[in-house]
Amino acid sequence: MPVDMTSVDSPPGGGKKVPLFKTPSTERADVGSPKRPPLETQQSTASMKRRSYSRRASSSFDFAHIDSVQSCPSLKLEEIDLSKVPWWTSHRFWLAVLNFFGFVVLYAQRVNLSIAIVSMVSHTHTKANSSLYMNLSTTHSYLNTTKAPNLPEDKCPKLEAKETKAEFHWSKELEGLILGAFFWGYLVLQVPGGRMSEKIGAKKVVAFAMFPVAILTLLSPIAARTDPYFFMVVRGLIGLGEGVMYPAAQAFWANWAPPNERSRLIGFSYAGGQFGNAIIFPIAGYLCAYGFDGGWPSVFYIIGAAGFIWCVLWVIFANDTPDQDKSISDIEKKYIKYSIGERQKGKKIGKNIPWKSIFTSGPVWGILVAHACGNYGAYMLLTKLPAFMKEVLKFDIKSNGVFSMLPYLLFWFLITVSGMIADCLISRDILSIANTRKLMATIGMVGPAAFLVGAGFMECHQQAETVVLITLAVGLCGFHFSGYFINHGDIAPPYAGTLFGISNTLATVPGIISPYIVSAMTKNGTKEEWRSTFYVAAGIYLFGNIWYIIFGRGEIQPWAGGEVKGEVEGVGFGLHEIQEAVKEEEEDEDDDKKKGLLNDKEGSPNAKVMKPPSTTM
User: Fold this and answer.
1) What is the three-class DSSP state of 458?
2) Under 8 Å CB-to-CB from 283, ≥6 apart: which residues?
3) I need a labelling partner for 305 at 20 to 30 A (CA). Which of 46, 62, 67, 389 fits?
4) CA gap 523, 176 in Å, rounded
5) Cα distance from N-terminal residue to C-terminal residue, the chain
6) pLDDT band for position 116 (cuts 50, 70, 90)
7) HSE (CB half, 13 Å, CA atoms) of 419?
8) 340: exposed, middle or buried (C-beta count within 10 Å: 0-12, 13-18, 19+)?
């Protein structure tokens, strides 16, 4: 008679626990306990269940390792009650809020110069374009315009700001170098930052990096007034410190985010970056117009102070693991540890990284190229959008800040929406993981390319239409975050953090070169010159999208999954999977006890060898 190995879950709300195994009626079982098959069969079954569980874990466990997870032998199935640990009232949610504001500060410190430099620099040469001549006087009187001859009165709106003083007379090329200096530093610590966070903890890495960034931001006006090249070095050091933030966040959430909540918690955290982009433009524009110490320096003072305050809060409230946190509830701690995978404790997944396989993998290069191409257009607009709105749309500094905000509000919103759409397509089996990622990437690359080309054909009096097109071009980049941006975990779960560091390093290069390229192409600030920069960005977008469609994949690669092949199943753990994990833990404990009893009896002459039951009648 065959052994029925079917497991039966007890109801989520409690109730009588149904035996996990059914054994033949002729086999002796202890009174009062469920009948179980012989030890050898149990061990074989447990091994099969562990492999099944490991497959589910690898589909959602995207990070290097969890060393600090401790065992909870006293945990019972009924103790894990999701109603007691909802994410929106949990300790982990407040950590997501802390991370959210960390990324707000991170991006504010990154892009503050993009709007401040509009007020900082006065170009003393005369610009000419098809609409008007701009006479930028050598007495620092800025934006005093005169209409070009033979043009209708309403052809182009005049600038509203008549007297905005600027301290510096930097060339366009020097501006491009200063704007790009941040990214020289930013690319250095992407991979090392992730590895350091895995070894010593994200809390220390972030604190040691972001405190100096806050101080350097406070000192930026002094550096700019001292020497432009000294200011360039300071901006590079700010980028160096900020380069650890994304990899460290991945290592941090590896220990805190249950897989079925990971998209919400991590997505909410990362969305702070685009929210920071959105709010810094109007705030910086207002400070440039009305701030203290000449206006633009107050941008750096206030943002630097905000960064310092956040670092203090991070040191006080952040911890690398639930075990280190004294304020988390016991039930939430147990829930996090079992949902992430208690059985992963002590395992250093991906300790020996297969570098050769990574750099010879087509799907990896699909991500790398797409990430770099997508970032070119995004970084170009991030650093040069205020300049475009000043030179082509003729916005004053306050309007510039407000209208520069709109694209990043849409960007922030679409990051969340695209994640929900992608999860729905995958979980309902509407599209495969690979096709979902490619669809999201296509929307996030072809869409911006089309709208940038359209914006290039707008006239300077079509301000509203141009703002709408630019807003859509930037906002649709939010779909990247559900496309190639998270594809690392699909193709190589154990090495997702390392792959992200590699791709983000390469994708930082466009941040270095795009400001310089745009500055070199727009020496006179004409509409025609800006149109050419949009064509270049659109072409790069399209190339990256075609490349990703060809090489992008959604299945775990052989060098990353071992015996695990095929597409990743599911989008995370639910209560059922957590219950299964607890059951396996209890079964292993019983196996260990029974094995100990068997070893004690091996020396006895009456000991009998246990044989597996027959699998036939």
Assistant:
1) coil
2) 299, 302, 401
3) 389
4) 11
5) 4
6) confident
7) 21
8) buried
The dihedral sign for the CA sequence 502, 503, 506, 512 = negative
* Alpha-carbon separation of residue 256 from 93, 197, 320, 338, 490 (angstroms): 10, 14, 8, 11, 20
> Is the model's pTM score more than 0.70?
no
How far does CA 389 lie from the centroid of its chain?
A: 28
CA–CA distance, 550 with 379 (Å, rounded to integer): 24
Structural domains present in the chain: 39-83+569-599 (no CATH), 361-568 (1.20.1250.20)
Segment 168-215, tens digit of pLDDT? 888 878 887 888 888 888 888 888 887 788 778 889 999 999 999 999
Report the range of poorest mean pLDDT among 139-143, 382-386, 447-451. Answer: 139-143
Task: Read off φ and ψ for residue 168, nearest 5 degrees.
Answer: -115, 155
Q: Is 570 helix (H, G, I), strand (E, B) or coil?
A: coil
CB atoms within 10 A of CB 150: 6
Q: Please answer whether residues 91 and 331 qualify as being in contact, where contact means their C-beta atoms are separated by less than 8 angstroms.
A: no
Q: What is the CA radius of gyration of the chain?
A: 29
567: phi then psi, degrees, rounded to nearest 5: -70, 150
Residues 232 and 177: beta-carbon distance below 8 Å:
yes
Distance CA(490)–CA(564), nearest Å, equals 12
Q: Which residue has the tokens 């005049």?
A: 158
Coil, strand, or helix at residue 518?
Answer: helix
C-beta neighbour count of 181 within 10 angstroms: 23
Sequence-ordered list of residues with C-beta below 8 angstroms from that of 245, at least 6 positions apart, any chain: 102, 103, 106, 193, 206, 209, 210
Tokens describing residue 90: 């949990």
Nearest-CA neighbor of 490 among 573, 550, 555?
555
Burial of 211 (0-12, 13-18, 19+ CB in 10 A): middle
3-class secondary-structure state, position 179 = helix
DSSP 414-443: HHHHHHHHHHHHHHTTSS-HHHHHHHHHHH
333 to 239, 262, 324, 391, 588: CA distances (angstroms): 35, 16, 10, 54, 22
Nearest to 392 by CA among 525, 514, 523, 281: 525
- Phi, psi dihedral angles at 35 (to 5 degrees): -75, 135
Report the SS3 class of residue 208.
helix
**C-alpha span between 291 and 135 (Å, rounded):** 26
Q: What is the pLDDT of residues 549-596, one digit of tens each?
A: 999 998 888 887 644 443 333 333 334 444 554 455 556 656 666 666
**Residues 521, 540: Cα–Cα separation, whole Å:** 16
**Residue 89 DSSP SS3:** helix
- Tell me how far apart the alpha carbons of residues 80 and 428 are, in angstroms, rounded to a whole number: 27
